[in-house]
Amino acid sequence: MCKLLKESCAALGSVLLILLGAAAPTAEATILQYDFANSGVFSGTVPTGSPGVYATAVFDDHGGTGNVTLTMSVFNNLLAGAYINDWYFNINSPSSLTGIAFNSGVAAASVDDTTACASNPPCGADGGGYYDFAFHFPTNNPGQLGRGNISVYDLTGTSFNASSFDLLSADHGGNGNHLAAVHVQGYASSAWLGGTVDEGGGGGSGGPLPEPASFALLGIGLLGVAIMQRRSRH
Fold first, then answer.
1. Could you write out the DSSP letters of every residue in the chain?
2. Which of 70, 79, 76, 62 is nearest to 34 (CA)?
């Protein structure tokens, strides 16, 4: 009997080690999403006929640091003919952002990195604050970031994740401080909008781990199976 239990427990231990390794937690990705809608206008005339959120900026760190994907999207509910040509963002440590590289979608005509935005004059959004980096898309087609288009960039450097881009702009011009800002044009007028954090935009890639009680029940069951199999061979 002792030999039986010893062999069965050894087998059970191996199985549990495998299960514990498979259930080891994975790094959870942080996702920061900014929503842009007419309710966020701080300068200019809103594009009428553009209901709800019609643009987003999503920062995804994929569960690591120093490598964040930024996706700027314009939805089809933006007024026909309108486009968003300027996008402004902040980061809590500008010196940590050392690379901004185009990935896919529509490429910006120019990009102001943190060094350019720190120069004189810095990156300002029509009185809505100074920002740390910015993207500027063409105001004439082809190349506009209009309805149904996205632009994806890779942000690289050291010791930052998606949450590092959750920061208010510096004071400038009296139109408030904003977490992000965009410039909407192409409809016989223009507007500057401040972004708001989408509270449902965050998430994680790691799955839930089994509770200790679940492991205990699984172990008892496997032990019983091992003993029954051993007895059936004798």
1. -HHHHHHHHHHHHHHHHHHHHHTPPPPPPPEEEEEEEGGGEEEE---TT--SEEEEEEEE-TTSSSEEEEEEEE-TTSPTT-EEEEEEE--S-GGGEEEEEEEEESPPSEEE-HHHHHSSS-EE-TTS-EESEEEE--SSSSS--BTT-EEEEEEEESS--GGGG--PPBP-TTS---SEEEEEESSSS-EEEE-EE-TTS---SPPPPPPHHHHHHHHHHHHHHHHHHHHHT-
2. 70
Backbone torsions φ then ψ of 223, nearest 5 degrees: -65, -45
Nearest to 84 by CA among 139, 32, 126, 41: 139
Amino acid letter, residue 29: A
Q: Tell me how far apart the alpha carbons of residues 134 and 33 are, in angstroms, rounded to a whole number.
A: 16
Q: Which amino acid is at 43?
A: S
Q: List per-residue pLDDT tens for the chain, 234 residues long.
A: 444 434 544 543 443 334 344 445 556 899 999 999 999 999 999 999 999 999 999 999 999 999 999 999 999 999 999 999 999 999 999 999 999 999 999 999 999 999 999 998 889 999 999 999 999 999 998 899 999 999 999 999 999 999 999 999 999 999 999 999 999 999 999 999 999 999 875 433 333 333 444 444 444 444 444 444 555 554
CA distance 123 to 113: 10
Closest residue by Cα to residue 65 from 104, 105, 24, 93 = 93
Q: How many CA atoms lie within 13 A of 108 on its CB side?
A: 25
